[in-house]
DNA sequence: GGGCAGCGCAC
DNA sequence: GTGCGC
DNA sequence: GCCC
């Protein structure tokens, strides 16, 4: 930020005895999917074939829609559902009534882009019933093989009641599998053994001639190791029978994924050092000789994914920006402003800080308990936030903060976030080792793969605007990040906080198969894709998107030409791709500078502060939030200047493009939501201006700094203490009715100082960069 | 089965 | 009052 | 999704 602004603000804070820091927004929904491919797909989407009953769609409320989301899956006790879940899934999206017609009519089709995909696949599979045979005769794995121990403890008894997959999904039916190493002492391997049994195979302990597959469970095992172990010179390969040596992963996971027995001789399944098969290594299911008819479906491994697109943030060079009135455009994320304020804060006697340390820790516990905040002083692993690109809902990638700085030293945490951005790679840890002084010990999180996949689920639900599930996943992921051992079983997972049975099952599935079918299934679902496409339109939510689908619209063009749109939605569609892109930090800054410059010429005593993820040090943001304030100014004054002068001025200059929602009332209108665009750019950005009177600055800073998880938890804490916290202040003596509706406003306790709000709530101070939960 | 924060604007 | 975004 |  600019020196001037800085000075101004510093003075302001000092004058007002504010000890706050700037904050950021909590952009909840600023990360939408990458729409590139979606758009493409949508173009290719076939005309609506949904059989719909017009009368039936009475317009479920979002709540109902979400409930329907919830309904799916609840009834899926098995951790291994696939096709069926798919059906349910697609059913959820738009009006529930239409859903049934989907599978029944068989009208659902893939986009023409993948003609080879056979439609009937899932339909077919859904018809397969859980195998009843088991009851009548000894299951194959007991007849032929050895029964592994149960998954519970290390010395559990034999698992004589393994629930097999429905026959139709037993892709390893009648196979005889030998593992290398071939015991069930290690839990992961025991799970794999269970898995192949569920898939219809048997596990044998000793070598025998009818073995069909040898599976190694680690990719570092080599062909020669296995031969040595078997004491053989080569794998037997008679005319009719051949023993296949494969890596369990990815062989079995992929067989599951494609619902068929894949060719084990395909290169990707081969064990290191194994001779390349002379047969063509096609990855189809030709190898399947099994009696069942699964061979029919050969699904093409079309792993197209929505996420592929990758918004390449085309950043607009800062230099180009008009302003520059300000001096240091290049200040580090930490922002000098913060530093200054920190020093101000630092003046507080340490004792006071220490004094409330006990209370703080108390509060931490409490807050944690209530809100699952990773308030852990010790090792909240920083920001880990970036499991992979694209942050989750709204929380933009934050630049982490060394864990070393604990809240306790509320004194002054040096300017935090280093401008260093974490690579978008998958292994988040690598980037942040610096944060773990412990060095070597701090290797990658053992659960990183699990987290990665759960995070994808989380993003999916975010796109679906299923806020509660998104919330739950984020909490669970947070928990998982704290584990220093790998969670491999559902049982293990279920005891952890915020991980229930259903997530635990998913975790086990991930560990076992390295994927979540639930995720795979949804990716290719055309209805899901359209739904997500529409949900990406600014101003459209679940209800609207579902109505559009219900009306038969499938592309953005459909909406433009046929649908009745609100003004926001029109803009949202026109600039769909703009709004879907992340805004590079430098550009956020440029927008902020433009505002500040204009403001300064109008009245130098006004100040503008960029909030949101920017304030938390994020390398890019979903939108731009700016708080405008002025010492001793009333809302009316703020409103007058901003709405009558600033906005018209910036609009005529071409910087502001349009408004989406603005306060109407002249007296206490406090917000302007619209769109801005730098002069040399064509990418429109979401810009929010917030007018805040000084007496509410603390609460506003807190609120708009986020992140959202942090906000929710601290609000929850407030309400638990009989108080109420919103962006205007902290109130006490709030009386609520039986339905929690508040019966009175309560009494204002504090609004001016962010820090005091923390204190009153008994929450240890956290710098903006530390409010990443 | 309800809560998971609570608010203001557009329609 | 509902839908939506913050 | 989880928790109470």
Automatic annotation (TrEMBL):
Protein family according to the UniProt entry: Belongs to the DNA polymerase type-X family.
UniProt main location, coarse: nucleus
Domain DNA-directed DNA polymerase X: 445-772
Biased composition annotated in UniProt, kind: Polar residues: 93-102, 307-338
Record-annotated active site: 506 (nucleophile)
Name of the featured protein: DNA-directed DNA polymerase
Subcellular location: Nucleus
Native source species: Massarina eburnea CBS 473.64
Lineage of the organism: Eukaryota, Fungi, Dikarya, Ascomycota, Pezizomycotina
CC per GO annotation: nucleus
Region annotation (Disordered) ranges: 1-26, 39-122, 307-340, 372-447
Catalytic activity: DNA(n) + a 2'-deoxyribonucleoside 5'-triphosphate = DNA(n+1) + diphosphate
Pfam family, one: DNA_pol_B_thumb
